[in-house]
Amino acid sequence: MKIVIAIDSLKGSLSSMEAGRAIERGVRKVLPEAEILVKPVADGGEGTTEAFVEGMGGEPVQVQVHGPLETPVMAEYGLLRETNTAIMEMAAAAGIILIGKDKRPLDATSYGVGEMIRDAIGRGCRDFIVGIGGSATNDGGIGMLTALGFEFLDEKGEPAGISASALGKVAAIRMDGALPELKDCHFRVACDVNNPLCGEIGATYIFGPQKGVTDDMKEALDQDMASFARVAAKAASRDCALTPGAGAAGGLGFAFLTFLNTELQPGIELVMDAVEMDRALEGADLVFTGEGRLDQQTAMGKVPVGIAGMAKKHGAKVVALAGSIAPGAEACNENGIDAFFPMLRGVCTLDEAMDPATAAENMENTAEQVARLAAAFA
């Protein structure tokens, strides 16, 4: 019997690989001779770097960079030396989680993201997988690009700045100082939104409020973004403002599309491609997947149904395990998951349930029982 295990992290408790290995231990108690593959999975957001580093033999790299505001931060990304690939989450350098309640959308910058990329280039990386969820910025990517050597100049030929407050000042863009290695770099960007850069469904109007953009700021900031986009299109001979995903991460998607060799992909698709999930599922009889909480949202494109959809193409049965099951989770049964099970074995507090040792034990025990059922029907 061939079994593939591909479960998302249980945030605050188990990483993707920790959960997967717990399932493997449970299965091996019943099916010691089974061929078992444990694959790291994530959706391109929080936990993606950790999943790749742990599951693909990568190494974590820490680098001090500019945070979204004035305070420097220690950002971490993953390095896969065998393929010279860097795995990054922009939130590590410019995430909203880094600023707490101090939301200043005109000042927040993506400069630190560019510093991470520059550091990885210096270590020989030419392929990049970048998750751009959870940003604190609305700067159109001007900060990231400045860190990579692009120059954004005002009408006097002076630097315009590295944050959203600079967007309306940009009159010219010089690209001759950009890192020469960028022409050899390829960026796969995990992007799960289709918003354009500007307008009522663009970066500022839709995502700006969660970053501190007030109603009286929206129109002016959106106009500044549009002005910047026009200058960028002229400089790069490419207009990406209306490209789906350009408005992601406060316009960071636009910056990648316009100035870098970039491919935007839904997060789960990007991750599954990178870990060669389709190949792993060939000949699989049973697939384990899951996440911390299984609910109706799971059926709307999250990791477990992404795995299930691919597994079904190979004729495998799919079982999902989760820390908790919420009303509406039945929708998962209509999206490729044959059965799902909660892993809690008794009444306990949330803290007790999320304790890593307890969670791993519960996951292992639940997987054992599923394996016993599979063996009985084999």
Account of the protein in words:
34% of the residues lie in helices and 19% in strands. It is built from 13 helices and 13 strands. The chain is an alpha/beta fold and 378 residues long.
Question: How would you concisely characterize the structure shown here?
Answer:
This protein has 13 helices and 13 strands.
> What structural class do you assign from the helix and strand content?
alpha/beta
Radius of gyration: 22 Å
Silhouette: elongated
Estimate percent helicity.
Answer: 25-40%
**Uncertain runs with pLDDT below 50, 5 residues or more?**
none
Keywords:
378 residues, alpha/beta, 5-stranded parallel beta sheet
Secondary structure: elements and pairs:
Layout lengths: L1 E4 L10 H13 L6 E4 L9 H8 L3 E8 L5 E9 L4 E5 L1 H4 L16 H12 L4 E5 L10 H6 L3 E3 L18 E3 L11 E5 L12 H5 L7 H22 L15 H8 L2 E4 L1 H8 L2 H4 L5 E9 L8 H10 L4 E9 L13 E4 L7 H5 L1 H22 L1
Parallel strand pairs: 1-2, 1-11, 5-6, 6-9, 9-10, 11-12, 12-13
Antiparallel strand pairs: 3-4, 4-5, 7-8
